[in-house]
Amino acid sequence: MLLVIKEEKKEEIKEEKLSLEELYQLIEEIKKDEEEYQKIVQERKENRLKNNSEIKVGNKFIFLSAILLATHITNSTFLLKNPFRNNKLFMSPQKQKEILAELEEKLDIQIPLEEQENYILLNSVFSNDNLTLEEQKEIFNLLPLLNDNENINKQALYSTLENLKIDYTSRPDIIDNSVVGLYFFPLHSINIYVSKEEDKNKDILNHEKIHSIYTNGLNIAIPRFLCEGMTELLENEYFSKTPFLELSSYIYEVNFVKLLCELTGEDIILKAYTTGNANYIYDKLDSIYGSKGDAKEIITKIDEIFAHYFDTSYSFSKEELKNLLTSLENYYVEEDKETLKGLNEYGYLKYDKRIKNSAFYYYENLLLSATYEDRYSKYLDYLDTVGTLEKAYFSSELKEKLLKEDSKILRK
Fold it and tell me: Concatenated DSSP letters for 23-53?
């Protein structure tokens, strides 16, 4: 779970804290000198003071301006602590070689050429004194996730890893008992409210780590279902031993994200989640069907249902969710439908039989199980009767594994 603490631009300030104080001092000196200069100019007009007084102050102003500019350039270009700008690495080849050599020795591996930049990115964690050596090394388990996403904000992530904190701690009274973990942004702090023994597979920690990768000042405003659903789905595909079986507290969020992947393609969903711009989703859907704004209205209403109905005792018309989901059928491109393999068409009679023909209808019917009072038991009944759809959306490794087997299988 993600908790955003509104603290504007704290990250950027912290990143260049050492030089900012000097810069501010120089700016103040320049302002004082400029005021003095203006006074002298005025006095010269009135009293015709000697030119050397004016020149002396003017030269001092120019001199201090040059120092300010040089300091700023040095800080921003040559001595900048964070080597990533606009997702590009600015570092000398020699320095890169040194870092990679140290990493290969620390991790006892040989780093592939195509992964070198992401290894350098994660290397920032070794300057983080908040983490143990074991925790620092475990950060490198995130590499496959980074390798599969070209939209990662590397500059923000570099700073996050330098400051990340992980604490297994007691749950404050103000936090609901159902919450087992929180990532606090922009404090870069992960709190886990169970013991390490209880979090044996590090499922909770991995979920919060993924939050820390994707959460920055640019993407805290995306729909909550997309934030939590994508985070949990990525945790499943990259870390879980049962990547297709979703039984967590975000079961409907995850499956709705999968439904959206069927509508727009997973690349659009990943880009929207990574950049924090849900307009990528809305614009794609509107280009398929309907006028501009239709898709946003539907998804916003569904997000409101997730926020209220699934987290509290808030009740809504059962037809509301059903109507919203079925309205999304208009966005489903007929020629893109694919046949699901492994489903016995006579083995499931309670739901729409179209689920045997496409993943979209599979997820649509699964989500409709939420319209029942005992929705979780209906959800499990659906999985028991229809089966679990084995389809990967983001992990290239998982996709390759499925290709070797028999992908898009419904397994009971």
Answer: HHHHHHHHHHHHHHHHHHHHHHHHH---HHH
Q: What is the pLDDT of residues 381-392, one digit of tens each?
A: 999 888 899 999
pLDDT at 73: 46
**pTM score of the predicted model:** 0.80
Q: Measured between alpha carbons, how far is 249 from 310 in angstroms, rounded to an integer?
A: 9
Report the C-alpha gap between 406 and 412 in whole angstroms: 15
> Residue 182 — φ and ψ, nearest 5°?
-145, 140
Q: Any idea of the CA torsion for 250, 256, 257, 258, to the nearest 10 degrees?
A: 110
Lowest mean pLDDT among 35-39, 47-51, 99-103, 304-308: 47-51
In the beta sheet, which residues pair with residue 388?
411
Name the DSSP class of 124: G
The H-or-E segment that residue 268 falls in is: helix 266-275
Q: Is 178 helix (H, G, I), strand (E, B) or coil?
A: coil
* Contact (CB, 8 A) for 171 and 179: yes
Contact between 7 and 188 (Cβ < 8 Å)? no
Q: How far apart are CA 27 and CA 61, in angstroms?
A: 11
- pLDDT tens for each residue of 8-41: 444 443 444 445 555 555 556 555 655 665 666 5
Closest CA to 206 of 143, 268, 141: 141
The pair of three-digit structure tokens given for residue 298, joined into one six-digit string: 């539907």
What are residue 373's phi and psi, to 5 degrees?
-60, -45
- Report whether 257 contacts 233 (CB < 8 A): yes
Calculate the CA dihedral of residues 359, 361, 367, 368 and round it to 10 degrees: -160
CA gap 80, 298 in Å, rounded: 45
Positive or negative: CA dihedral 182, 235, 267, 386: negative
Whose structure tokens read 């209220």? Answer: 308
**In 3D, which of 36, 29, 14, 12 has the Cα closest to residue 67?**
29
**Separation of alpha carbons 227 and 32, rounded Å:** 49
319 contacts 278 by C-beta, under 8 angstroms: no
Question: Residue 37 class from Cβ within 10 Å (0-12 exposed, 13-18 middle, 19+ buried)?
Answer: middle
